[in-house]
């Protein structure tokens, strides 16, 4: 009896070819769902793993790159320092695609300075924050995104207001800012596809509940709260530039087409309000309003493709710096003498 033939993508690979190591995170952790969607998207888009890198810092979230795209090079950096490593790697080879996975502590606390600067640089990077409002790896202290007034068994009462990483990204100049919920597999998947086509830094702030330390229904980072309070700004589907996809699961309503930098599109279905993701001040107002009402909004919050990616701003040549031969990198004695003369 022959086994059923596995489905393959445009590269002739199966979905299993995009797997990596078995997870060591807690059963039910939202981070595992995000890793699964990265695998699904990489398979669907036919991503060549040797042309991608994956990066992370420290924390439960930063273990995630070990669990997806086993054929991709990765680097686990210091706590909060993933953006610096990403900048160096992508300046060395700007032809690579990159996925950086961080957490609310890694990005919102010790790494806040690095987070803000990578947003303003517009490096070509999909920056995923697996946001659970707690330090799960060190037994449940509050993170910078934890709700004010929240009580945790091991940490007591949180008396500080939360940092909204989507707001911080928009203010810093990021042109692709989205929020989702790890339990909403379809939305996470479509946002990932769109982010991977964006020629700059794309922030995906994904609320990913910690089932061990922060899953009480009073927390806005929990599964119960997310299921009860999620308000989708729009239904979203990503249409690759070269592949025609028929959308058959949408209800009648208005559509908004947002053209991506490479000619691809994001199709946004309007739901309960006329939301415009290209309005920067409107996006900030909507985030502030949601925070005040403790409303959990998801979808593409802000989009702007007018800025050039960092590699173009820096006038990088087509050939990656990391592959240039010594004769092109090392100046001759005559050139060095000329430079020294100009300094005298």
Number of helices: 11
Q: Could you give a short account of the major beta sheet?
A: 8 strands, mixed
Mean pLDDT: 84
Quote the CATH topology: Rossmann fold
N-to-C SSE series? HEEHEHHEEEEEHEHEHEEEEHEHHH
Strand tally, please?
15
Q: What's the domain count?
A: 1
**Rg from Cα:** 21 Å
Based on helices, strands and strand pairing, what is the structural class? alpha/beta
**Adjacency order of strands in the biggest sheet:** 2-1-3-4-10-9-15-11
In the CATH scheme, the class would be Alpha Beta
Shape: globular
Strand residue content: 15-25%
Architecture, CATH level 2? Answer: 3-Layer(aba) Sandwich
Structural description of this entry:
This protein has 344 residues and is an alpha/beta fold. 30% of the residues lie in helices and 21% in strands. The chain has a single domain, classed as Rossmann fold, CATH 3.40.50.970. The strands form 4 sheets. An 8-stranded mixed β-sheet has the order 2-1-3-4-10-9-15-11, sandwiched between helices. Helix 2 runs parallel beside helix 4 (112-121). The longest helix has 16 residues, at 30-45. The relative contact order is 0.12.
Give a brief description:
This protein has 344 residues and is an alpha/beta fold.
Please tag this protein with its features.
344 residues, alpha/beta, Rossmann fold, 3-stranded antiparallel β-sheet, 30% helix, globular
Strand-helix topology:
Blueprint: H1 30-45, E1 52-56, E2 73-76, H2 82-92, E3 97-103, H3 104-108, H4 112-121, E4 125-131, E5 134-135, E6 141-142, E7 151-152, E8 156-157, H5 165-172, E9 176-181, H6 185-197, E10 201-207, H7 223-229, E11 230-232, E12 234-239, E13 255-259, E14 265-270, H8 280-293, E15 296-303, H9 310-313, H10 326-329, H11 333-343
Parallel strand pairs: 1-2, 1-3, 3-4, 4-10, 9-10, 11-15
Antiparallel strand pairs: 5-6, 7-8, 9-15, 12-14, 13-14
């Amino acid at each position: 009896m022959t086994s059923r033939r596995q489905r393959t993508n445009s590269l002739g690979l199966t979905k299993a070819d995009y797997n990596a190591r078995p997870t060591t995170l807690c059963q039910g952790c939202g981070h595992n769902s995000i890793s699964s969607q990265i695998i699904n998207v990489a398979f669907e888009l036919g991503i060549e793993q040797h042309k991608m890198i994956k990066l992370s810092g420290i924390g439960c979230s930063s273990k995630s790159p070990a669990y997806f795209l086993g054929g991709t090079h990765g680097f686990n950096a210091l706590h909060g320092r993933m953006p610096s490593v990403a900048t160096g790697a992508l300046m060395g080879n700007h032809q690579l695609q990159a996925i950086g996975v961080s957490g609310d502590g890694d990005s919102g606390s010790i790494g806040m300075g690095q987070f803000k600067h990578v947003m303003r640089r517009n490096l070509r990077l999909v920056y995923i924050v697996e946001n659970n409002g707690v330090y799960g790896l060190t037994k449940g202290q509050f993170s910078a995104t934890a709700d004010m007034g929240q009580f945790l068994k091991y940490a007591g009462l949180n008396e500080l207001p939360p940092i909204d990483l989507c707001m911080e990204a928009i203010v810093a100049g990021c042109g692709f800012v989205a929020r989702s919920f790890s339990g909403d597999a379809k939305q996470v998947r479509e946002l990932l596809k769109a982010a991977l086509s964006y020629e700059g830094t794309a922030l995906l702030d994904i609320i990913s509940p910690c089932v061990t330390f922060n899953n009480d229904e009073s927390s806005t980072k929990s599964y119960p709260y997310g299921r009860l309070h999620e308000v989708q700004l729009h239904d979203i589907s990503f249409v690759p530039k070269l592949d025609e996809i028929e959308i058959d699961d949408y209800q009648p309503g208005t559509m908004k087409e947002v053209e991506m930098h490479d000619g691809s599109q994001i199709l946004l279905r309007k739901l309960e309000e006329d939301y415009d993701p290209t309005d920067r001040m409107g996006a900030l107002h909507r985030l502030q309003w949601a925070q005040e009402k403790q409303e959990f909004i998801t979808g593409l919050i802000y989009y702007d493709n007018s800025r050039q990616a960092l590699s173009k701003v820096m006038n990088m040549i087509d050939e990656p710096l990391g592959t240039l031969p010594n004769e092109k990198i090392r100046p001759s004695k005559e050139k060095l003498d000329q430079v020294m003369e100009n300094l005298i």
